Structures are given as structure tokens and as C-alpha cells.
Amino acid sequence: MTTTATPATDDDQLPRTQQADDPFDRDVLPTPPGATAALLRSLLAPMRSRVTLTTVLLLLQQAAVQAGPLLVAYAIDNAVPALRDHDHGPLIAVAVGYLLCALVSGGLQFAFIEASARVSQDVLLDLRGRIFRHAQALSVDFHERYTSGRLISRSTTDVESLRELLDEGLQELVTVVLSFVYISAMLLWLDLGLGAVALVSFVPLYLLVRLYQRRAGRVYRARSTAIAAVIVKFVETMNGIRPVRAFRREAANDAELAVLNRRHERTNGDALLEMARYVIGSRLVANTAVAAIVLWGAYRVASGSLELGVLAAAVLFLRRLYDPIDRLGMFLNSYQSAAASLEKIAGLLAQTPSVPEPSAPRELPPSKGELPGREVVFDGVRFAYRTGGEVLARFDLTLPAGQTVAVVGSTGAGKSTLAKLLARFYDPSEGRVLLDGVDLRVLAVPELRRGVVMVTQEAFLFSGTVADNIAIGRPDATREEIERAAKAIGAHEFISALPDGYDTDVRKRGGRISAGQRQLVAFARALLADPAVLILDEATSSLDIPGERAVQRAMSTVLRGRTAVVIAHRLSTVEIADRVLVMEHGRIVEDGRPDELIAGTGRFADLHRAWRDSLA
Ligand SMILES: Nc1ncnc2c1ncn2[C@@H]1O[C@H](COP(=O)(O)OP(=O)(O)O)[C@@H](O)[C@H]1O
Ligand SMILES: [Mg+2]
């Protein structure tokens, strides 16, 4: 037999960017031992009684099915001789009994399928829910590395392969095991010698099953990794369709996808080959056993030590015994791919958020005074992304409640990192970030969400209406409040001009909204959320100059009383700031009132002069 390709040799053919060093580039995250089994148990535990019921239904159904050969033996050995004495009773009883068994087993099978389908649907519903909830709760750095393509693959292909196991595979397994037990018992009871031959044939069959299981396990794991890689590539390409077009990546992507598709095709072929070897091997064993029994049985019938009916029943039983072996292969198939999938899902579910929810959450102290703003302190904060060097080294900063601070500095200086630490997308590796004296790590999550809101460049809109999108931070807001927020930010005019105004679906035709307009919606959203601390990270970068001017006029209203961190590269924003920080290489190199800094001779004075000249 040829050995099947392992994923390691496949990787050599992939473009460099697809090669995996980081565990996150692989599909299976480190899964704690026993996690897969524990997951399966926890999924099935709530339906223990229903699982028992379905098993009982199957037991009864098998009893009805396996009565057939016994009735045939009775017909040959008793009913036919009785017929010679003109006694029709036994034969009629056999015929009626045979029909009854068929009816009863049909009815039981129906009940079983219904009951087991309900169990499997509930299990899958539960599992999909768990994947979604868990993925949503995981921290931003997890998503940056695991990618949405892998998550999609987990909750579609992998859940689907578990469905196949539950819907078809388990029934097969239970049927096969039950009929093995029933039939062996029947054979032994009918005739010890014939039964023993059948039992001996189980040994090579068992070895065959073990061999198949081991080999197929490897193949199936490789196959599901290959499927996931295709999905990941697909999702990534479509998510990045604009840069793909802009940089003419189509041909390169086609080539990369072709490699991945070929790998998928090859692993599929490997899986089929394994299956074929198994089926051929098992048939060989089965037919050898049948031949042996027919041979030996015929001699014994001739010599009078075995009844013909018993031999007929034994052969019928044997056929029934070996028929399901192909199906056992099918079961092992779906078992292998479900096990591979479940392992991946368990690995995902075993991930813990790197930004965990506090175990003993604290509330913020009551606000001092009328204004919503709160004090922000960075206390000796160090921070490094998982991949890469330290971005902030012993960073100290105090923003008094209600201050508007503009942060400027070159690209890569660490401005966005500062913002993300303040919004607790990440936790510092050392030191603390405090909101009114409370460490963000112990602050109750709803308090944090209400307290700190960040508007970024991306300004993502969810499907739904414009009004829904503005109200995301405050779903209970009235239409009046939503419009007031939009008006304050200067978004009311363009929204009113949309086909259905505030009720325009942002994903539908005619609801198309430009990048700048999206940013205005994001501003209105932040304003409506009414946070104590508002962070704007290049949030006006998609606006044209008049648009930005309009936002700036609105800004004084929006920011009034709040603590605000405004990161911008257009220095016009600085005019509304109480304080300017210039950041370089993760440090604050200048800190002061805008007019002071402009009048001085530092970095900001240079930047400001250059910017003024560029406007002229
Ligand atoms: N998600 C990330 N993973 C790893 N490194 C990052 C990540 N985001 C930013 N960095 C790195 O951190 C440094 C600071 O980035 P950032 O805070 O985004 O700078 P700025 O917003 O000032 O342009 C850069 O060197 C950047 O490469
Ligand atoms: Mg940035």
C-alpha cells in the first residue's frame, strides 16, 4: 500500500505566506487532552433520557428485523413437513409472523429516526450557539490571528460533519453493533460449530477496522484542514476585493487557490482510496467465512448431523452479519471526519479571552458634578503585541476629567495602541490603565462599554437601517434622540436625502453610503452612546475638508464635558484641543497647550508650520 500524503509535505508546495509557523496559522489550536471528549459529553448530557429512548427503539427494531431468518428456519424444518400432512397452520403463522415483523420494525424505525433527528438538531443548535458566543467573547488579538475564514469553516463545514455523524453514522454504528450481538447469539444458539466459525471471522474484521481507523483518521484530518484552507483563502480574497483589484492580484490568487484546491482534491482521493481498501478487505473476509460455512454445513446436512433449515438460516444470518460491514466503513468515515472537526471546535472553545471579564467587577464611583467626563490615568504601562517588540515602555499619562487632548505623531508611533488600551481591546503587559481610579481590568464590562467609546477610521455599518446603526450603543433611544445626534454631527442632511431617510437599509440598493458618510454615522452613534471618554482615532480621515470642518464645528458640542482623545493627522483638529501630545516611538515627546507648542521651537511647531504652508 502506498502511504498517504501528510499535511507537512503539502505545505512545501504552498506559497510562503501560506506556510504555518504560528499555531494560529494551523487549523487545530492546542487542544487540552480530553477536551474533545468532554465537549461531546457536555453536548449529549442534557439529552441523556432522549438518547436512551432512541437506543431502546433501535434495540426493539433490531429484534424485529432479526426474527426473519429464524422464521425461515422454522418454515423449512417444521412448516414444510407439516404441509405434507395437509397442515397449513404453521406456514400461515410463519407468513403472518414475517409480515408482522416487517411492519413492527418499519414503525419502530420511523419512531427512531424522528427521535434521533430531534436529538441531533438540538445538539447542533447548541454547538453553533456555543461557537458564536465563544468567538464573540474572545479578544481582538485572537480574531486578528485566527481570521474570520477559519471561524466560518468551524461553524459550517465542521458542524456539518458532526451532523452527518449524528444523523446517519450513529444509527449505522448502533445497528451494526446490535446486529453483531444478536446474530452471533442466534448463530451460537442454532449451532455451536457454525457460530464459532462466524466468531473467528470477527478477528480479521476487527484488525481491518482498527487499521482503517488509524489510516483514515490521518487522511480525514488532512482533508478537513484542506477544506478550511480553501474557505480561508476565499473569504480573505473577497474581504479584500478592492486591494485585489487595485493590485491585480487575481492571477496570483487563482494560482494560490488552485494549489489549495488540488490539495483538497488529493486528500479527498486519499479518503476514498482508504475506504475502498477497507471495503474490499472486509468483503474478502466475509465471503471466505460464508464459503467455509456452506462447505462444512453441506457435509453435515448430508451426514444428517445438521438440519437443512438451520443451515439456510445460518447463511441468511451470515449475509446479514456481513452486509452492514460496508456501512460500518461509512460510519467510521463520518466518525473520523466528525472527530477531526470536533477536535478543531474543541480547540476553538478552549481558547480563553486574553482580555478576560473581571471575576469581581467594580462599578465606577458616582460622577463628580454635572459633566460626564472622567479622569484617565496610564500608570507605568508597558505593552507589546504578541507578535513584535514593545510598543509602549513605561508609559505614564494623566488626562483630567473633561479634557480634550489631541495626539499627533508619525505613523507607527503607538497612537492607536494607546487608544486600544484605553478601550481595553488589549491589556497592558505591565502597569495599569485607570478610569476614575478603577483599573479597567476590574471594571464591570457594561460600565466600560458605556464609559469608553472609540470611533475609528473603519466606521463599520451593520445590516439594518441607518437609524439602527446610530442606535447601536443605545438600542432604547427614541427616533427623536437619534435625529438629534445626527443633526449635532451634521449627518441629518444626507440621511434625509436617502430613499427612506433614517429607515434606509444600509445594505440595500439605493442605501449605498460613502466612506465619509459612514464616518458621520459612526460619530452620531458615538454621540448617542454618551460616553464619559470618547476616542477618535483618525475618525475624520475619510471626510473631505468641508465635511471635516462641519464635524469640527459639531465637535465642540460633542466633546463638551467629556474626556476626549483625538488622534488626527490633519492638524486642524488640534484647534479644538485643550492639550496636545506629540508621540514618537511609544513615548510622549511634547506635551502642552496648542498655542504654547505652536509658539515654541519643538517638533509640533515644525509640524504645524509645515501643515499651515501646505494649506496655503
Ligand atoms: N495588531 C498588531 N499586531 C502587532 N503589531 C501591531 C499591531 N498593531 C500595531 N502594531 C505595531 O505597533 C506599533 C504602533 O502601531 P500603532 O499604535 O497602530 O501606531 P499609530 O497609530 O501611531 O500609527 C507599530 O510598530 C505597529 O507595527
Ligand atoms: Mg493609528
TrEMBL record:
InterPro entries: AAA+_ATPase (IPR003593), ABC1_TM_dom (IPR011527), ABC1_TM_sf (IPR036640), ABC_transporter-like_ATP-bd (IPR003439), ABC_transporter-like_CS (IPR017871), P-loop_NTPase (IPR027417), Type_1_exporter (IPR039421)
Signal peptide (from-to): none
This protein's UniProt keywords: ATP-binding, Cell membrane, Membrane, Nucleotide-binding, Transmembrane, Transmembrane helix, Transport
Subcellular localization(s) per the UniProt record: Cell membrane
Annotated membrane topology: Multi-pass membrane protein
This protein's GO CC annotations: plasma membrane
Record keyword Transport present: yes
Pfam families (alphabetical): ABC_membrane, ABC_tran
UniProt-annotated stretches for the region Disordered: 1-28
Transmembrane segments: 88-112, 196-213, 305-322
MF GO annotations: ABC-type transporter activity; ATP binding; ATP hydrolysis activity; ATPase-coupled lipid transmembrane transporter activity
Domain ABC transmembrane type-1: 53-337
Protein family per UniProt: Belongs to the ABC transporter superfamily. Lipid exporter (TC 3.A.1.106) family.
Official protein name in the record: ABC transporter
Source organism (scientific name): Streptomyces cellostaticus
